[in-house]
Sequence to fold (851 residues):
Amino acid sequence: MATVGTNNMQAKLVLLGDMGAGKSSLVLRFVKGQFQEFQESTIGAAFFSQTVAVNETTVKFEIWDTAGQERYHSLAPMYYRGAAAAIIVFDITNNDSFVRAKKWVQELQRQGNENLVMALAGNKSDLASKRKVETEEAQTYAEENGLFYLETSAKSAQNVNELFYEIARRLPKAQPIQPPSGMLLSDRPADRTAKSSCCS
Amino acid sequence: MFSRNCADRHTCFGLLALRFNYSPYLACRTAPRTCTSYSTPLGNFALIFGDDDDGPCYLPSYAPEKAEDDRDLLSSEGVNGGGADATSEEGTSEVQEFHRNEDEYPPSQSPSDVNGFKCISYNMKELDLDDDRRSAENMEGSCEQAKDSDIEVEPAAGNGHVEGYKSYASSECGGASKSGQGQDTDLLKRDLIPGKQHQNEDDSSAAWRRHKKHFFILSHAGKPIYSRYGDEHKLAGFSATLQAIMSFVENGGDSIKYVRAGDHQVVFLVKGPVYLVSISSTDEPLRALRRQLDLLHGQLLLILTKSLEKCFVKNANFDLRPLLGGTENVFSSLIHSFSWNPASFLCSYTCLPLSHTARQAAGAALQDVADNDLLFALLLSDSKVISLVGAQKASLHPDDIFLLSNFVSSSESFRTTESFSPVCLPKYNSTVFVYAYVRYLDTDTCLILITKNSEAFFHLKDCRARVESFLMETHVLRDISNSVARGGLRVEDLPAGDSIYGSVPRSKRVGTVGDGKASNSTAAGTKERPGVGGAAGLWHFIYRSVYLDQYVASEFSSPTQTPEAQKRLFRAYERLYASMHGAPGGSHQMQYRRDENHVLLAWSTADFEFFAAFDPLAEKSSAITVCNRVCQWIRDVENDFFFVGASPFNW
Fold:
């Protein structure tokens, strides 16, 4: 959940998508500026945090990089519950991963969190020659479903920072500062309690 | 038991033989004998059936009830097949033979020549006692008759390297046996190439059939789930064949345990809807192979829990492979550990050597964060335990530690950052997921916090920060990395015994952990036999504390510093352990064996088990003296090498 302070906020961000789509690679590029050609499969979910500054606000992302394997799908809610933003990643050279991405979008929409910022990332744009998912197709799908679409490449770092900064910008900025819930305690000494105590 | 139509079985095994093509080892024909031996176009198979599922499965234990059959029960080994003789494979032929029940079942080695193929038919009894055939001597027996003259291979004096071995490790390890000199003397451990090897092979390729040890997991419908080598998709036909064999026997209300075909052993294990099969020519004891299949199943449960069985209830044709995506490394590293990690057959864990105070500090750090949310806290260095806390009235089984540490260390992604993953601890509770918070504190040291609460990540993250800062402040992390660099017990450091080397104050020799260098420089054993191991030709030992479920193994000394020698030693221990446990007719208290590679000594008491390997020319009496000294030594340094006190197994 995005929590707004004076000038900084904390936001939980989750990456979802098919295995091998490049979720971990995107995060590692964003957080550590690294890229590995043969990234090992993630087990469960890996946790990262990274702070970015947009428009005089700093946003501290708490990033959950989930494993794409099927066996973890039923556990995904554990990671996306309460998220302020989600990046759904697919591999532009793999049509199945796009189909899988659409399912993730549906699943998140069913959660009914209207404030959730969703991004669709078509990863591996450096492999454009092997492209199976057309930009227009993904763009249209994203617009229809209220997502924003970016084609990224963790390998060449293209659009990776842009993706996260765009999310930071879209996070609900002027979230009305809620009156603090719970009761207000006054400074007055609790006279009555003192009177009623047994050993006064 | 064997009333079914033999013709069907012939077909089954013919299929297996065709798929797996055992020739030339099986390129021999003999006339059909009894129902328990199967003649196929490619060879004969001897079958053993049994009813007990989980009990100790040492083959000859099936023998007494059908002693009559055993005499006729045939397995065959083609001697024209080039190295097909199992005994010569490891160079342990014709030393001294010891047969239990020798009077009852004299070995009937009767060379015969059938259809132009020369065959040797072994009495089944003798074949499967091959544990003991390897020159085993019962301690109480006639050990004086050891024939030193049979030993042809002698270690070269300088570097202890032994010439003239057959390459033993090469094909099983995928040909990767690059050795280097470093602190870590365990060469085999470093052999593992992550990921699946030989991905594009299948049962039609000769290279695939040449691998020494195959493991298969398949569903009861015959769908492949995992294969050590080759592509599971392409092995669908082979899987179906295995399934056909198993279900054929099952349909008769029986279960198939074991097939021996030439020097190949096929071991079957049924775990509900999951079938596990190993096919190996490594000549390991059946008991050890069964345990390996058991661990493989445990690893499957650790990833998926027992609820995977529900998938098969709903749909018998369920394909489990997608659910195991990305876990090839976990399985390949587990199978690799079957050839270097003694925990795989000892059913115990080992600790990182650490001074008692440092270990206590580490334990205190873990105890400090133990609360209701925390089920277990584990501090590991590689696969060695530094400290362990069970916060509630729960105990962590050594097998769970073994499988969990394999799972964590084989998954590279845990090293990148902190992770929170569902895992199942099969011995603790095989039906539910618990959640593991995993974080590497440095390159080797790994903290694993296990909780039942799926929401506890941030709490565990705080716990980790507390543990980490405590370990930094108390310099325990530094002690840990020093210990990793220093390694474990070395046979060269064995304190001199008073009787042999004159009286030397013991106190000077004990402090291995605190001041490893001091004890190294004063070790009399090193001076006595430079470069050839420790005193009296001691090469290596394993000491297992029965009470603590922990073991300590020495570092490999110079005569055992080739991958081949280490693997041979590992297999020898494995056999020794099997022959000390669950052997029919009572277990031995003590064993002394000599073959051309080692003298092996095993000693089992109520408190500990001790296994040691010596130079093949070592004398028995001095070997026994040295064993006593090693045991005394280990008791002296027990606090540094074992995790004693607050044992989680004694709640």
Observations:
- Chain B has a mean pLDDT of 72.
- The interface with chain A takes residues 303-304, 322-327, 329, 407, 411-414, 416-423, 433, 435-436, 454-455, 457, 461 of chain B (CB under 8 Å).
- Chain B is about 35% helix and 20% strand.
